[in-house]
Amino acid sequence: MGTAYYQSSIFQKYTIMLENDIDFKDRKLSLIQRFFIICSGADKSIIRNCPTEWNKYTGIGATIFFTGLLAWLSGSFALYTVFRNTGLYTIDRVALLYAIPFGFLWGAVIFNLDRFIVSTFHKTEEKSFFKRLSKELLQASPRVLLAIIIAVTISKPIEIKIFESRLAEQIQRNEITAKKNNISEFNTIHELATKEGRVANLNTTITELQNELVTDPQNVKDLINNDLASANSELSSIKNKNNPKINANKEEINAIHNNSESYIYTIDSLGNKINAGYTQEARDRRYVLNQEIQLWTKEIKEQQDNVDRINKRINEERALYRQQKNEEIANRKLERDSAEVQLKTSMATAEKEAEDANTITETAFSNNFITQIEALGDLTDSDSTMWWTSLMITLLFLTIELAPILTKLVTKRGAYDEVLDRVEYEKMVEQRSIISQTNSKINEHLRRSEDAAKMSGDIMIQKQRDKLDAELKNNKEILDAIAKYQKDLALEALEKWYREQKNNTVIK
């Protein structure tokens, strides 16, 4: 009932009132206007009779449409980078077959969300500017938040395409860093640094032992510096004391030997002089001298033997020391060789595992969407110019995405909003009236059922009939009152809108 009243009475009244000022009958929506108004989410049956609102909702619909178109391009590029198996500057046609339909689906989702956001936002009728603004901002806040999310989602693939060459360089840097981290990580896992340090320490120990090998231990040094030095000193002292005596005795023996008076001579039968040996005195003297020489020589020899014993002990201690050092060096070399084998094995294992990890890293750092997003974050973090450029692109898309809702926020409440609120109100009243009637019927049936169980005969029937007549009368009065109020409200609103339009026309 409300819709029929709206179509037959309200719009006819509205057309008659404006007929003398602006001839709207000859104006028709163009094909483009119809398309963009559909995109804006406006009610076609209402907007058709509000010509002053056509341009506004055409602009809103165009913004929503082109935002969806950008979302299509953005989503297609994002999925293309996911499925691309070719180089950076080579087109992968197979990837395009996947990317374009998905991009269309993504653009349709964004288009539908934008259309929903704008179409569900209504201008309020508050007279106070601040109350109206606060209510509208509160109403728009979740839609603005959703628009921000959509804008960021759309802008990132576009940013990736704009920074494509710089991102390729950043991805290569990230890949190199990741490979270095892989090598370092597997070196740490296999404790290469510890094992290299152990080999180095063993080499240092071996070098120190080899240096110690050519030096004498402290006990040998003590023997040389104390016992041997003392024995040699004593030997020198004895030699210095006895050798002159020995030499003197030897000289005296030689003198006795060379002295003819030291011999006894006899005459043989031929009258020749024959030496018969030393005289008794010469023999006795030679004996004494020889005894002294033997005594002094023995004293020197005993001391020399003592020196030789000390030297022998020194050589024995030195040989024992060097044998121990050689054994220790051999043991350390065995340990070093074993450590080197472990180190080489660990290095080979770590290198193999790092190569496998780097192969995975190369695949992970192929020029795909996730890698590009990561590289974009690294690039904007390290370069302020890139950060500002990325921010400006995001703000640009954010402005485009917020344009429809901002347009509705900053524009005045128009005829379309008035009529739309009225239609919604009529529908609400109509539905409540239907609900009220239905509830009345249900309650009546319930009451009649209860009364029928308690009452009988003609009295019960008459009472029920009287009640039914009374209820029908009351419902008729309610419906008549609702229709009257609806009519008054519609006429009053249209009179207000007409005055505003007429004032605007006069001013122009």
Description:
This protein is an all-alpha fold and 508 residues long. The protein has a domain at 196-364. The chain is 84% helix and 2% strand. The protein contains 14 helices and two strands. A two-stranded antiparallel ribbon has the order 1-2. A hairpin with a 5-residue loop joins strand 1 and strand 2 (273-278). Helix 1 (2-18) runs parallel beside helix 14 (457-507), helix 7 (164-189) packs across helix 11 (369-382) and helix 8 runs antiparallel to helix 10. The protein is rod-shaped. The model is unreliable at 1-24 (pLDDT under 50).
Features:
84% helix, mainly alpha, rod-shaped
Architecture blueprint of SSEs:
Layout: H1 2-18, H2 31-40, H3 44-47, H4 54-83, H5 93-119, H6 129-162, H7 164-189, H8 192-213, H9 218-258, E1 263-267, E2 273-278, H10 280-364, H11 369-382, H12 384-410, H13 415-454, H14 457-507
Antiparallel strand pairs: 1-2
Helix pairs in contact: 1-14, 2-4, 4-5, 4-6, 4-12, 6-11, 6-12, 7-10, 7-11, 8-10, 9-10, 11-12, 13-14
* Biggest pleated sheet: 2 strands, antiparallel
CA distance, first residue to last residue:
39 Å
Radius of gyration from CA coordinates: 61 Å
> Strand-and-helix sequence, N→C?
HHHHHHHHHEEHHHHH
What would a concise description of this structure say?
The chain has 508 residues and is mainly α. 84% of the residues lie in helices and 2% in strands. A two-stranded antiparallel ribbon has the order 1-2.
